[in-house]
Amino acid sequence: MKPEERLAQWIGESRNIVFFGGAGTSTESGIPDFRSAAGLYRQEEQLPYPPEVMLSRTFFMEHPDVFFDFYRSKMLHPDAEPNGCHRLLASLEMEGRLQAVITQNIDGLHQKAGSSRVLELHGSVHRNYCMKCARFYSLEEVMAAEDAVPRCQHDGAIIKPDVVLYEEELNQETLYDSVEAISRADMLIIGGTSLTVQPAASLVTYFRGARTVLMNADSTPYDAKANLLITDPIGQVMERVAVILSTGQA
């Protein structure tokens, strides 16, 4: 049995699926990941500072102009569209099979595909707030700002993207909800993540269900615990799974 056939069969037998995803979920939508050969962190020689430095809270506060230049040019992909993975997950939620998407991504593609139960561990580029008065600004407003550093129209303070930077803590409520969702799941699908970024990666250890599917191009520390390993591109695999499910072959 092919891996996508096995995955489709298990999906058909499950009623409480949770998907835990990382940057690899969106690469087929044209958004680069971080740690692969073509990832953002491999472009250091082309950048004024290492990405990990520019994406830190300290750097944001001390060099907001450099931060936003990097952020706008490398982190924002407003024209990106959901791929086969995002679309299948949204469909499974509508059917009542998928209970939650837990994502390390900040691109909002799961919501764009139609998912409503999305736990964003690292925030979202679509939410931006004035650091003084907390007024909300959309991604479009941040991108349209004429100044190098977007500032609040009411008090002139910096508008900060609602994304978790290095040196910042993850939202505790989101973490709690993620632990609860994973611990209750009967099937866990992990996709597009190296499972090396903490504390997010440790969340998968709370899974107590029967089946773990790990979909990632490279090996991870969790490979030996997975019931099914898939290394093909996630979007393509999920498209094939969708076809199998729609034809009733699972």
TrEMBL record:
UniProt EC number: 2.3.1.286
Binding site for nicotinamide: 34, 106-107
UniProt domain Deacetylase sirtuin-type: residue ranges: 1-250
Active site annotation, chain numbering: 122
Catalytic activity: N(6)-acetyl-L-lysyl-[protein] + NAD(+) + H2O = 2''-O-acetyl-ADP-D-ribose + nicotinamide + L-lysyl-[protein]
Binding site for NAD(+): 23, 27, 34-35, 104, 106-107, 122, 193-194, 216-217, 234
Subcellular location: Cytoplasm
Pfam families (alphabetical): SIR2
Role this protein plays: NAD-dependent protein deacetylase which modulates the activities of several enzymes which are inactive in their acetylated form.
Protein name: NAD-dependent protein deacetylase
Organism: Paenibacillus medicaginis
Gene: cobB
